[in-house]
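To whoever is on call:

I kicked off a structure prediction for a single chain this morning and the downstream step that reads the tokens threw a length-mismatch warning. I double-checked the sequence; it's 256 residues and nothing unusual in it as far as I can see. Pasting both halves so you can look.
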Amino acid sequence: MSLLNFTLRPIEDLDPWGNEDELSLDWSGLSGGVFWLEAGQATLLEYSLEAHNNGADTVFGRQVARFHEDLTALLPFVLEPVPDALATFLRRGIHEPQTLDQDTNESELRWKTRAKASGWIGRRTLPTGYMSPGARICLWSDADQVHIDWNNRDKFYAGVPAWSAAGGSFSITRTAFTDAVSDFHARFIQQMAQRIRQIGAGVLAPEIAIDTAGLLRDHEVHSRALDAAFKPQPSPPQWDVILAACQDWERMRRRT
């Protein structure tokens, strides 16, 4: 099993956008399916057995294009090595999120310090706000490895733990990670290209409108997504400024 996995729904089972009189599908809509990560012995974005017994699916389902877009947007930050002096702070922020919680009646200085101390972690955290509930999954790297840290102990579905992977971490070499991303990208783009050919063959119901030119443009854009994603950030992080903010935040926390 690969690190990054997905399955597209059969094209005839996709739900078109719009009302009955104006049905349509775009490139993203054609990517409906499920996606998940295999991080060692853990399956991320897999619902727990308790959640499944309460009506949840097996793994999270939505447009795979959203996962693809979020991942490629994260990559420049994920592949920027985090200094050793900040690695402990990052892991604490994921596994002990209360250490970065906002206080009631927080002062402006405290708010700005906390934002500087945590914003760089957010740029390495997979966006899951559109999930219900979300999941806390952070991808980051040091000089040798890419690390995946997750903490979903406070995520519930119908009153029971939502995700099968409650908390943990997984590490792979930087080369293995970039190979896994490239493989995921290639498989996804190839399967989307096959969908476009199916549409050309008339597989969709005639009442579902398709902007063929727009579909081809979007496919070309997504096909090139990794070209920029694997490039270093144009403005490298100011790690000394970030480290100072994290140290200031720790001092503030100890005084409260």
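Update from on-call: the warning came from a stale cache, not from the record. Cleared it. Sanity check on the structure: The mean pLDDT is 92.
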